[in-house]
Amino acid sequence: MVIPKGIREQTGIKEGSEVVVEARDGTVLIRRASPPTESYVDYFTNTFSKKLDHTVNIKKLLEEERVERQKRLH
Fold it and tell me: Residue 18: which of 3, 38, 28 has the closest Cα?
């Protein structure tokens, strides 16, 4: 199904996004599927974000950033 770019951008629908299609009063409605209630962050990262090809150590990155900021202050 092809959805115009402007509508995709406005609604956050991307390739691979799940949508709901329903007929109502002779009209076809297409909407983005609601995220599961257990974790919106997991839903968002699994659906909308680009996938990493490697793991990222967030704690290490934050520590490196902290050290760099301290160096700049001294």
Answer: 3
Q: pTM of the entire structure?
A: 0.39
Q: Which residue carries 């990155």 as its tokens?
A: 61
Q: What is the DSSP letter of 15?
A: T
Query: What letter represents residue 8's amino acid?
Result: R
List the pLDDT tens digit at each of the 74 positions of the chain.
888 999 888 888 888 788 889 998 999 988 888 665 556 676 666 666 566 677 888 899 999 999 999 998 87
Angle 30-35-40 from CA coordinates, rounded to 5°: 145
